[in-house]
């Protein structure tokens, strides 16, 4: 399934941002924009998740066929 639909690999971005990298991002310092690093990291993950899903749907050939009416 992933061989024909390579854009679905983008759906791993939220997993990596929230779970795989979390042990390395679990720091209070440095502070970014007044927020602890972990809070800033979670905010970045919340912003990147819908972007990754949107990009995956744009590149999915099944979605293109659906919208073309095939």
UniProtKB/TrEMBL annotation:
Statement: the UniProt record of this protein carries the keyword Transmembrane helix: yes
Keyword Transmembrane on entry: yes
Keyword set, alphabetical order: Membrane, Transmembrane, Transmembrane helix
TM regions (residue ranges): 7-25, 37-58
Name of a matching Pfam family: DUF3311
Domain of life: Bacteria
Protein name: DUF3311 domain-containing protein
The organism of origin for this protein: Sulfobacillus harzensis
């Amino acid at each position: 399934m992933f061989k024909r639909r390579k854009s679905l690999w983008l759906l791993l971005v939220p997993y990596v941002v929230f779970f795989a990298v979390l042990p390395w991002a679990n720091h209070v310092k440095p502070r970014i924009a007044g927020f602890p690093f972990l809070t800033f990291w979670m905010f970045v993950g919340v912003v990147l998740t819908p972007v990754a899903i949107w990009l995956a749907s744009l590149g999915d050939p099944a979605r293109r066929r659906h919208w073309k009416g095939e």
